[in-house]
Amino acid sequence: MIDAHCHLEQKDYNKDRDEVIARCREKMDAVVTSCAYPDDFDLTISLKKQYPDFIYVCVGIHPEYIKELKQEQKDELIEKIKGNKDLISGIGEVGLDYYWIKEEDFRERQKQMFKEFIGLAKELNKPIVIHSRDAHEDTLDILEEAKAERVLLHLWGANQLVGRIIENRWNVSFGPILLRSKKHKKICRDMPLDKIMLETDSPWFGENGQRNEPTSVEKVIERIAKIKKLEANEVDIATTQNAKKFFGIGG
Ligand SMILES: [Zn+2]
Taking the complete model, does pTM exceed 0.85, yes or no? Predict the structure, then answer.
């Protein structure tokens, strides 16, 4: 089992981060944690150094921070990514968020930053992990235009656009939202098994608003198995293999 998208640097884990990771190590193959804001870079990289063959790292800037973000912060983060590229397995999460950002000029800046990170992923030969909320068409347009190849769409929610994702041979990761969303169920049904990964987006999406942990991918496996009429074991093996291949884990 691999959690392909979570945020272990969040302050929710400050008191017991090592215990959480120890619980993950008991049953999981790896955890991919995503630094989504410049200030979180150092802690994220320190986790990678502490657990080099278990924690894998993505770095990017979440589009919802576009208003508060300063140009120098972004440029500095890009330099840090370049300087630590051997410790980083992917760029992300990056993308577009029109749910939180309504103003046209800020949306335009999101697009510019998104394109910049796609370029960086290409330059460093890394896969890219995408956040898209209420901006699905624009997200796919930009990715297609940039001819992005190694793409993981995290928490993708637009079932009407799945055909385009399949055509582009991109990946989708499913989290606990799959346990309660019909839309995501349809997407899961339609996506080929070799393009599916597991995620939790921990610490978010826990049961009853509680803190989530990467080990909850277990429940997602069972749900995917049910939707795709497969054995849980088959889903476990396939999603683990897909994440290993995508992030270059263990090889
Ligand atoms: Zn996330």
Answer: yes
